[in-house]
Amino acid sequence: MVTLKGEHVYLRALEPEDLDFIHEVENDESIWELSNTQTPYSKFLIKQYLEQAHLDIYEAKQLRLVISDYNENTIGLIDVFDFEFQNRKAGIGILITNAAKRAQGLGSEALSLLVNYCFTQLQLHQVYCNISEDNTASLKLFTKQGFQNVGLKKDWNFVNGTYKNEFLLQLINS
Description:
Elements: E1 9-13, H1 19-26, H2 32-35, H3 43-52, H4 57-60, E2 63-69, E3 74-84, E4 89-96, H5 106-120, E5 126-132, H6 136-144, E6 148-159, E7 162-172
Parallel strand pairs: 4-5
Antiparallel strand pairs: 1-2, 2-3, 3-4, 5-7, 6-7
């Protein structure tokens, strides 16, 4: 049985009440490198995005979920993107926005829930992620979940006046 509830966290759909949270996340320049963001987002645009968040993943080709704990604290976001049902693959990204909640296993639990959902409910053959070479925390998180490093993309992203390498990791459903 597929569940999006773990021992310490659960994954939930975006709600209109998440407007301020999403606005804050999308406009946090310190994490723009992770999402390849280059410009701020207005509340108007984010509100429009939230109004479309109900679209089926087969139509939208993406799914963004909120990571919450059982005290109803919003911990972060986890995404399925570039969903390709024909090829049975998608990208995954995760962000624990609450720094105090990092390195406690909550991101690992959320990632495990999402991977299980992708393989069982969406019937994907594989999921992948792109991680900057210097993002050791994310590399550790994904490899702990069984993702394999399958390549290094040299000079892949231009960040703060310098090129950075990026790893491609994938997990194939056996």
